# Entry
Amino acid sequence: MYLSGQHVILIDGHSLFHRAFFALPHLTNGQGQPTNAVYGFLTMLLKLIEVYRPDCIVTALDRSTPTFRHATYEGYKAHRPEMADELRSQFPYLRQALAAMRVPVYELDGYEADDIIGGLALRAAGQGCRVTIVTGDRDLLQLVGPRIKVLLTRRGISEMEEYDVEAVMARYGLKPVQLRDVKALMGDPSDNIPGVPGIGEKTALKLIKEYGSIEGFFERAGPAGGRAVSTALQLKEQVEMSKHLATIDTDTPVVFDLEECKYVGPDMASMAELCSRLDFHSLARRLGINCGEAGGEAASDSAGLVTLNGRALQPEDVKVIVTNEEAQVTVNEILEGGPESEPLSLLPVLELVPGRPGEFSLSSVVIAYNNGLRILRDQGLQQFGPLMASGRGKGGHDLKPLVRHLLAQGNEVKGLESDTAIAAYLVDPLRSGYPLESVAEKYLGVTVEKARDGAVGDDALAVRASWLEPLRDRLNAEIDRLGLKGLYHEVEMPLMRVLAQMEATGITVDEGVLDQLGEEFSRRLDELATNIYDLAGVEFNINSTQQLAEVLFKKLNLPPVRKTKTGYSTDASVLEELAASHPIAGYILEHRQLAKLKGTYIEGLKPLINPETGRVYTTFNQTVTATGRLSSTDPNLQNIPVRDEMGRRIRRAFIAAPGHVLIGADYSQIELRILAHVSEDPGLISAFLEGADIHQATAAEVFGVPRDQVTPAMRSRAKAVNFGIVYGISDFGLSQNLGISRKEAKEYIENYFRRYPGVSRYCEGIVREARREGLVRTIMGRIRHLPEINSKNFARRQFAERTALNTPIQGSAADIIKKAMVDVYRELQ
# Structure
């Protein structure tokens, strides 16, 4: 997918954390814990979000393990002083802060954060994104390019200097990529990169301007160039090594996934807990969080109290009443000169008082008048989105968080007829996110700045609320035009309430089971490590790609399978191939899998268990995937392994509450059944109507043998072909999956289409339709635009064709399952 225009921010985590520590005075919470670095980092992060409104944010962190630079030069960073205890003690809170802000952290053994940022920046830019790198390290300027900018901290934490290609040229007189050559000559005392003694920045810049690069320097420079040049010529190997150390490795094994790192806003409950623990009261107010003042007690003894212009609102001033049919706000004597006319609609936005179940604080009240809008308090709408109520039904934008909180308190929520975030997603499912501002700009042509003159006062929040009804009308027209009305009103809108109820309910976790599994996993990991070290004849970092490659391909002399720009690959496919010739590969594969399970589903899950309820509360993302599938985050409860024994044992930790049972329900081979339905292939339909093992039946057809003579190997290959057809797989992809030649894979696919000609006709027809219409549809009418389907670029066009094949199948399956969720929920109610 080409992601033109999406804005990605990549944060150099340790760099900004250090910068904040030294820029701010010594701060502590009530227990004496230093907090200045965390406070400064969060301040910078919030400012970046407010100013740049990114679609995606990622923070890269360094790990303590050695990198490839240490392997190149023992003295690399050897003179760095020990980290101050006051700073070290804050690192756990940095990770908590990033988790609470829902900013993913990328870190990788063998690489520095600079390398991770470099890899992510190039991959994101290559997909058409605009990238902004935020750092205090000038080394990252070498990454600046047509789609990549660097924000460099100048003074303290408040001033940033933006560098694009022109700015780098103006400052240094060089292209960004040439800055690594400058560093190779001048060295870097902080990283202990030697460079050339006697050459500083001025001389290094002059030489690179003259010769273009280190390579050009050694090719054309002579001793007549002076003392510095002569010294550099004598230290050729040292200079080349210095350039290697100074060069950011952009070929890191990291994957840029916009859906994974899409910024969706903070987890308010987690932020409230962190702000309360660290006494960040001003940050809490900035986020619209009531985390209480000193001592952790709430700021007011009465639920629902907020302040307005320094005055505490009393219950007789504001009442929030949630009934079965409507939400109503009564406002008395606090408009202070506001319009005398009666309100046309009264719109509450509520949030829970942290630590006080069942109580609400009144975050905002938006009151619509004949002549505009007035805001009483502007906190909270960014979390929940505004509500609207009119004669044509109630609705709003991104309402699920609000509905979830209301349901969690036992309040019934009825009558919500529209959600413009969901509507915008259905109309254009390829966007990276659906914040109100960007949706309104696209469909109404307005921004806060453009529309402010038409609002009462100067409040941007009032402007956003004023967009709701016209935006609903515009999107409803698009929904009607595209034939999405049934999907919107009968599936997606009812599903929003179902998901909100699921999020509010959570699921019980048996922490004792996790503890027991954690101990077992740790013992097995130790056993595997011992086996690996015995076979290797040396102890090493099993998680380090470089060290592992050294052991496998140099010490044990195993045949290298695949080489990358940074060395020999040790990924799973390589290890699986090596396992046939040496047992160490099998042990390493098991070690990796077990370490991932332990880190993700035991160590990662336990901190998310609510200590009061014993439950975890995930978030189901309804407007993320282009196919219509749901995803789950914080924690991800949809990807817990089920095929291996260890994964199944982790699933047993999820239990029913006392007096209840868990029931699992699923469709059998739903995607292949949909393929049979849409292709109308008689052979495929017949196999399902007979109740046959579909993979066995396919194997019999493809390999030309009776069903009772199909071997397990035949069935396995037929299964790969079945699902490969659904996902638009190529002969190359199938050959990689099955470990067979491309020619053999091509024969399997051709045999499949000969035996199931209806599927062949369907595949050809859906691609033709996609080329003609520029989109494809599911059975229920969900659309997916395919802007690259007629591209002159072969790779982009081929990807669009595969998408045209699999979206109607995957999307129809998602629609059917969503409809089932809604129907089952109604029956349970």
The two ends are 40 Å apart (CA to CA). The longest strand covers residues 360-369. The longest helix spans residues 794-828.
